[in-house]
């Protein structure tokens, strides 16, 4: 029996996240205050008492979820993972939890990633859409058929649930074709832009420089990365996968199946919300999940 700790990505945020940790644990409080100092604004005020609109800003959302996830892991008495994985942004949380990145370096990279992605979104209007009830292969085929716009499969969340990403025209055109092909839903999401698509290339270039100027250590356990959905231990591979992640799809279904194949029976979601627990159950019904 092996335990996998999994870390959520953008969309898991909620007002009040992390306040119990801050109030009840002195180590957590010190880490939150260190983050406030490093970021140059009191992100805790937005996390604990802000509005949903405050938390939807990419420059706030990403470090907020990272902080909640990482500080929870760092203050757990029984944090002893056999393996870790994170969904998109959550991969950075997983890397800190696995001792690959320090808390400070992880926060710097996440904030740099958030700013770079926000800038990329402003260069060209773009979006994402959730597609329910179609086979992955059919979604991929329809996206590929739209050759005048950018639209690609972005998040393989669980069987029958895939998120597409691209230009506004490309995503809208794909949604119409997907509905005609029998999708139960093809719903455009309220997001800042086309994450995990070629439109994030400016952000990828920016993040690549930051990653290669950051110290990485050997992980204490395998990390299953979004790009290849395989156990990774080599530092150079971890870095290259982390860079590629911005423009490549999140292979969450494949990652969970790989962890199960390597012996994972228990999945512990570490961070705000319970979205990943639900996805794990849909991918592998026999898995034990908790937060």
Describe the structure.
With 291 residues, the chain is α/β, with parallel strands linked by helices. The protein folds into 2 domains: 2-122 and 198-290, 3-Layer(aba) Sandwich (Malonyl-Coenzyme A Acyl Carrier Protein, domain 2), CATH 3.40.366.10; 126-188, 2-Layer Sandwich (Alpha-Beta Plaits). Helices cover 49% and strands 17% of the residues. It is built from 13 helices and 10 strands. It has helices at residues 19-24, 26-39, 43-49, 52-56, 58-74, 90-97, 103-123, 136-145, 168-180, 201-212, 235-244, 252-261, 275-283, and strands at residues 2-7, 83-86, 126-132, 151-158, 161-167, 185-188, 223-224, 231-232, 264-269, 288-290. A 6-stranded mixed β-sheet has the order 8-7-2-1-9-10, sandwiched between helices. It has a 4-stranded antiparallel β-sheet with strand order 4-5-3-6. A hairpin with a 6-residue loop joins strand 7 (223-224) and strand 8 (231-232). The protein is globular, with a radius of gyration of 18 Å.
Short synopsis of the structure:
With about 290 residues, this protein is α/β, with parallel strands linked by helices.
Task: Spell out the blueprint of helices and strands.
Blueprint: E1 2-7, H1 19-24, H2 26-39, H3 43-49, H4 52-56, H5 58-74, E2 83-86, H6 90-97, H7 103-123, E3 126-132, H8 136-145, E4 151-158, E5 161-167, H9 168-180, E6 185-188, H10 201-212, E7 223-224, E8 231-232, H11 235-244, H12 252-261, E9 264-269, H13 275-283, E10 288-290
Parallel strand pairs: 1-2, 1-9, 2-7, 9-10
Antiparallel strand pairs: 3-5, 3-6, 4-5, 7-8
Helix pairs in contact: 2-5, 5-6, 5-7, 6-7, 7-10, 8-9, 10-11
């Amino acid at each position: 029996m092996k335990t996998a700790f999994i870390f959520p990505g953008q969309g898991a945020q909620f007002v009040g996240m992390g306040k119990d940790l801050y109030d009840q644990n002195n180590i957590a409080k010190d880490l939150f205050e260190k983050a406030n100092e490093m970021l140059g604004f009191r992100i805790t005020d937005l996390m604990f008492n802000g509005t949903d609109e405050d938390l939807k800003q990419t420059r706030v959302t990403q470090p907020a979820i990272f902080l909640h996830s990482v500080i929870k892991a760092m203050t757990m008495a029984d944090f002893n993972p056999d393996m870790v994985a994170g969904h998109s942004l959550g991969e950075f949380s997983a890397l800190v939890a696995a001792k690959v990145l320090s808390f400070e370096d992880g926060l710097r990279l996440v904030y740099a990633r958030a700013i770079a992605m926000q800038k990329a979104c402003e260069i060209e209007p773009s979006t994402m859409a959730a597609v329910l009830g179609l086979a992955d292969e059919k979604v991929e085929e329809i996206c590929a058929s739209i050759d005048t716009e950018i639209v690609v499969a972005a998040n393989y969340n669980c069987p029958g649930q895939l998120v597409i990403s691209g230009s506004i025209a490309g995503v809208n055109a794909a949604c119409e074709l997907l509905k005609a092909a029998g999708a139960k839903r093809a719903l455009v999401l309220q997001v800042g832009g086309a994450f995990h698509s070629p439109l994030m290339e400016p952000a990828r270039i920016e993040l690549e420089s930051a990653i290669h100027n950051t110290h990485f250590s050997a992980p204490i356990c395998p990390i299953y990365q979004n790009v290849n959905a395989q156990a990774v231990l080599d530092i150079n591979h971890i870095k290259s996968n982390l860079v590629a992640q911005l423009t490549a799809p999140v292979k969450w279904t494949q990652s969970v199946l790989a962890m199960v194949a390597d012996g994972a029976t228990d999945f512990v979601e570490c961070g705000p919300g319970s979205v990943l627990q639900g996805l794990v159950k849909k991918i592998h019904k026999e898995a034990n999940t908790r937060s």
